[in-house]
């Protein structure tokens, strides 16, 4: 984690992000569609969140959902394609369609400068120079994406907050999170070994980070996770917590914007509710990067304490890890086309 984080910050600081920033900042009235799979899904959501904070309208979807959009919808939007390697079928199909329908309004950010980057080849073939490759050397991922997520969040933070001081994010904070009961009693990771379900609450800067952690917990086979904003949780989701105090826990993402609602929500929870509190002092795009670094440290510590290998999680059902990503879908998409009324 420490070496990966240093590599991420060093290369983000040195990267020329002005062309990407210009694409995103110009014509803010044009809606933005972001798309990416796996570890890139939450990065797309982060970009959409910040585009909206600047006054635009944006959404983030997976490539499979992206292909349900009509040509008319894609022609009227900016399109941001995110993929570490640029070679999985999902991003390749989305790239091909985006460039066919809206080449001037499509941009991509990849981390692979190898010949396997099929997305970049499609951009070059179309005559577009808007596939930006930032190699991110020394940034490590296992089966579960961690380095890729940190890289995208750092880059997107720098794009939307150009004056951010990234130097302070070279290392994990000394106290990245708090483990406790709702009455304040301190806990250790030993108390979370029986947890099988996490309820993840978020607001504003924590939204994309919560999405990211949900993916990590599920992909490593550690536990299920459900993500809600603080108000939607209060519309009945609390019943799950009430029924599962022994085998569930709550993860609270907190920025200065959420401190009051967090306190008011906790007032209604049982004292024995297990909590993980991940908090940032910032109220700016860097708040999400700060929360992600803290959240990733929590994830690694939780895996270590519970005997889960985040690099290569157990697979007792013996599902071939190589095969699900190659489930055919493109012929079906071509045959049926996008959703149209």
Tell me what you see in this structure.
The mean pLDDT is 94. The protein has 341 residues and is α/β, with parallel strands linked by helices. It has helices at 2-14, 18-25, 41-53, 63-66, 71-75, 89-101, 118-126, 147-160, 207-219, 230-243, 259-266, 286-306, 330-336; strands spanning 32-35, 58-61, 78-83, 106-110, 131-133, 178-181, 197-202, 224-229, 248-254, 274-279. The strands form 2 sheets. Strands 2-1-3-4-5 form a 5-stranded parallel β-sheet, with helices on both faces. A 5-stranded mixed β-sheet has the order 6-10-9-7-8, with helices on both faces. The chain is built from 13 helices and 10 strands. It folds into 2 domains: 2-166 and 325-336, Glucose-6-phosphate isomerase like protein, domain 1 (Rossmann fold), CATH 3.40.50; 173-306, Glucose-6-phosphate isomerase like protein, domain 1 (Rossmann fold, 3-Layer(aba) Sandwich). The longest helix is centred in the C-terminal third of the chain and has 21 residues, at 286-306.
Task: Give a short overview.
The protein is α/β, with parallel strands linked by helices and 341 residues long.
How does the SSE layout of this entry go?
Layout (H helix, E strand, L loop, with lengths): L1 H13 L3 H8 L6 E4 L5 H13 L4 E4 L1 H4 L4 H5 L2 E6 L5 H13 L4 E5 L7 H9 L4 E3 L13 H14 L17 E4 L15 E6 L4 H13 L4 E6 H14 L4 E7 L4 H8 L7 E6 L6 H21 L23 H7 L5
Parallel strand pairs: 1-2, 1-3, 3-4, 4-5, 7-8, 7-9, 9-10
Antiparallel strand pairs: 6-10
Helix pairs in contact: 1-8, 3-8, 3-9, 6-7, 8-12, 9-12
């Amino acid at each position: 984690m420490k070496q990966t984080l240093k590599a991420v910050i060093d290369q983000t600081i040195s990267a020329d992000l002005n062309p990407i920033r210009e694409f995103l900042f110009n014509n803010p009235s044009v809606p933005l569609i972001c798309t990416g799979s796996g570890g890139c899904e939450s990065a797309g959501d982060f970009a959409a969140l910040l585009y909206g904070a600047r006054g635009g309208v944006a959404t983030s979807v997976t490539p499979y959902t992206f292909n349900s959009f009509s040509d008319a919808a894609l022609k009227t939007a900016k399109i941001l394609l995110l993929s570490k390697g640029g070679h999985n079928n999902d991003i390749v199909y989305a790239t091909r369609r985006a460039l066919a329908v809206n080449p001037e309004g499509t941009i991509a950010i990849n981390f692979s400068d190898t010949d396997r980057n099929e997305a970049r080849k499609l951009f070059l073939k179309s005559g577009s120079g808007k596939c930006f490759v930032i190699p991110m050397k020394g940034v490590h991922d296992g089966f579960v994406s961690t380095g890729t997520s940190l890289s995208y969040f750092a880059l997107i933070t720098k794009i939307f907050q150009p004056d951010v001081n990234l130097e302070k994010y070279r290392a994990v904070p000394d106290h990245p999170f708090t483990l406790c009961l709702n009455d304040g009693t301190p806990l250790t990771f030993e108390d979370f070994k029986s947890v099988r379900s996490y309820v993840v609450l978020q607001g504003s800067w924590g939204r994309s980070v919560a999405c990211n952690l949900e993916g990590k917990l599920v992909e490593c086979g550690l536990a299920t996770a459900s993500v809600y904003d603080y108000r939607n949780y209060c519309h009945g989701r609390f019943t799950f917590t009430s029924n599962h105090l022994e085998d569930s826990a709550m993860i609270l993402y907190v920025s200065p914007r959420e401190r009051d609602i967090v306190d008011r929500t906790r007032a209604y929870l049982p004292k024995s509710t297990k909590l993980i509190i991940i908090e940032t002092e910032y109220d700016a795009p860097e708040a999400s990067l700060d929360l992600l670094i803290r959240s990733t440290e929590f994830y690694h510590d939780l895996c270590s304490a519970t005997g889960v290998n985040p690099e290569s999680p157990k697979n007792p059902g013996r599902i071939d890890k190589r095969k699900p990503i190659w489930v055919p879908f493109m012929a079906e998409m071509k045959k049926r086309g996008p959703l149209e009324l």
